[in-house]
Each structure stands twice: as structure tokens, then as C-alpha cells.
Amino acid sequence: MIAVIGAGSWGTAIAIHLGRLGNRVSLWSFEPKIAMAINQDRENPVYLPGYHIPDTVVATPDLREALRDCRVAVFVTPSFVTAEVAAQAAPFLPSEALVACATKGIEEERLRLMHQVLMEELNIPARRLTVVSGPSFAQEVAGRQPTLLTVAGSDPLAAGVVQHLFSGENLRAYRSSDVVGVEVGGSLKNVIAIAAGICDGLGFGHNARAALITRGLHELTRLGVALGGQRETFAGLAGMGDLVLTCTGDLSRNRSVGLRIGQGETLAQIMAGRTSVAEGVKTSIAVERLAKMANVELPICSAVYHILHHGIDPQRAVEGLFARPLKDEDQL
Q1: For residues 185 and 217, is the Cβ–Cβ distance under 8 A?
Q2: What digits encode the pLDDT tens for the residues 67-87?
Q3: HSE-up of residue 23 (Cα within 13 Å, Cβ side)
Q4: Could you tell me the maximum CA-CA distance found in the chain, to the nearest angstrom?
Q5: Fewer CB within 10 A of the terminal residue: the chain, N end or C end?
Q6: Angle at 10 between CA 180 and CA 57, to 5 degrees
Q7: Do 185 and 285 lie in a common domain?
Q8: What average pLDDT is seen over the chain?
């Protein structure tokens, strides 16, 4: 049995994929109506409409039931509720079950990465935890489009188990030992994607997008290395791969938020009409604080933070980035 904790778009897509590979999957939904709809209609009508959910997937609003006898628990909850859900799940997690974190974000209050949240709240050792990340829109995974992911873990055996669990059909997973680097890449790229959307909303061209992605990768690397990640990780799927996808794809929730900001809407107006989570909005707050604690410069991420949360005019923020002192390109 595989437990997928979180029935948003990405959690549902993971459950569909794992179910199609022949696994029995228990999909936990916070919303009982969603669980009922999945079991009755074989579709998630709110978060991933239009994609058939195989009979191997059974949804439930009960954490105890979802985790019963599972050998792997995949957590795919929004980052701002992950600690709460994990604490509730802890008593029901089988003693030797592996945990895979597919949530991308940084805890706003305590600035923990999601693997740290899960380790502490579930009270499990690092050897049982892995992180799943990479360029992966939920709709494309559910639609059987070719996708590559990275599975990172401090224990190569655990990482290998999860790697093989996810690999099959049109999805292939690669293994990494850099848990911190993979997590930072998957989290910060959402903030850079908001910046990419802002640029598009302001009417900037391809030159600006290419520059933004390149310098955004530099910021991912800068913070990731400062927190203990490996520089080469950011040239891989969880770094450059995920960054390019999220900054250019029309399915990107974070880019769509930035696009509307660049076109003149306020964050409050945008968030009022959304059912899905754009992780970069909250992550930008945590990243601003983390950068100060780590004493690293993240000018693009900081500009996004001030645009979103302090009402700085996007055009003025761009002008501020161009007015910064000149430096060597490879300077971390």
C-alpha cells in the first residue's frame, strides 16, 4: 500500500501515476466531499478535473485509514499546513514506512525546509526520508506526458526504493544524495517564476526572460550552497529543469500570479479567486528572512517579496535591479 497525503492537483496526479503502475494507493483528502467524488466519479472535480483516476486509488478523509499498512507515505500537502498534517499523521505512520516529501516550500515561521518539518513532526530518522522534485506539471503527469524527476535521500537504499516506485510508463526518476539542494531548488524556483510572470505582464521580451532565468538560477545556487546544498545539483532537474518549466509554462500557478501582478492586479485580488496554491507567494517571505540569516544576496527574490507584500511598483523594482552595482557574473 502507498499512501498519498494530499489530494490537490499534484497529489492527485501522483496517486494516478502510482495507481496506473499497479500499486494500491490510499489518497488522503482534507475535504470529505473531494474524497467522495474521487471514489464515486473517478475524478478530482476541483483540483484535477478531466483526468481519470484508476480503481487502484481509494480516497479517504481519514489519516489513520490512509496510512494503514503503507510501505511509503508521499506527503503532498501545501507547505503552510504540512507541519500540522504531519503531527496528526505521526501516530498512524507504520514504524518502518518510508516517507517521500513532494511538497515544495519553506516554512514561514520557523524557516524549516519541508524534509526537516516531516522529520521532526513525524519523529523519523533521516534514513527513512526522501524528497521528490523536478519539472513536473500535475496535468502532464496525469496525462501520461514524458516527465523526469529527482529523488533525493541521505540513505541510498531508501532513495532507490522511491526512485523505483515512481519510475514507469512515461516517468523516469534519477537519484541524488543532496536533500537540501533538491529542496531549495524546488522551493526558490516558485519565487523566480513569479518574477518571470511579472516580466511577461509588463510586456518584456525574450531577452528579459532568459536573463531572469539565468540570474534566478544563480540565486537558487547561492542560497542552496549557503544552506549546505551542492552547487552541481542546481544544474540538474531539481534546479535548472524545474526553474525553466515554471518560468515558461502556461500551467505554472506561480508564473500566472506574477503575470497578473505585472498587468496591474493586486495580490489580494488574485488570491481571492484561487482554489489552487501558488507556493511562491508564501515562500517569498521565508526566503527573504533566510537570505538575511545566511547573509546572502538574492536581489530577484527580494524584489518579488517587496512587490507582493509591500506593494512596490513592479516597474520600479525592475529599475532597482538594473541600478545595482556591477559585479563578476560568476560571483556567488
Answers
A1: no
A2: 999 999 999 999 999 999 999
A3: 24
A4: 60
A5: C
A6: 120
A7: yes
A8: 96
Neighbouring C-beta atoms of residue 126, cutoff 10 Å = 14
The pLDDT, as a whole number, for residue 274 is 67
Residue 215 corresponds to which amino acid?
Answer: R
CATH number of the domain where residue 216 is located:
1.10.1040.10
Here the cell at position 88 is 496528526
In eight-state DSSP terms, residue 5 is E
Range of the domain at 280: 180-322
**DSSP helix/strand/coil, 207:** helix
Contact status, residue 251 vs residue 277, Cβ threshold 8 Å: no
Alpha helices in 70-178 (DSSP H): 79-89, 114-122, 138-142, 156-166
The pLDDT-based confidence of 90 (bands split at 50, 70, 90) is: very high
Positions annotated as catalytic residues are 189
Q: How many C-beta atoms lie closer than 10 Å to residue 204's C-beta?
A: 16
Do 276 and 204 fall into the same domain?
yes
Last residue of a domain, one of 153, 177, 201: 177
- Whether the CB-CB separation of 317 and 202 falls below 8 Å is answered with no
In this prediction, residues 167-187 reach a mean pLDDT of 97
Please give the angle made by the CA atoms of 174, 73 and 44, to the nearest 5 degrees. 95
Q: Which of 309, 206, 185, 292 is nearest to 248 (CA)?
A: 206
Closest CA to 165 of 21, 65, 313, 58: 21
> What single-letter amino acid sits at 2?
I
Question: What Cα–Cα distance (Å) separates residue 149 from each residue in 37, 139, 152, 280?
Answer: 29, 15, 10, 20
What is the rounded average pLDDT of the residues 135-159?
Answer: 98
Q: Which three cell numbers stand for residue 222?
A: 547561492
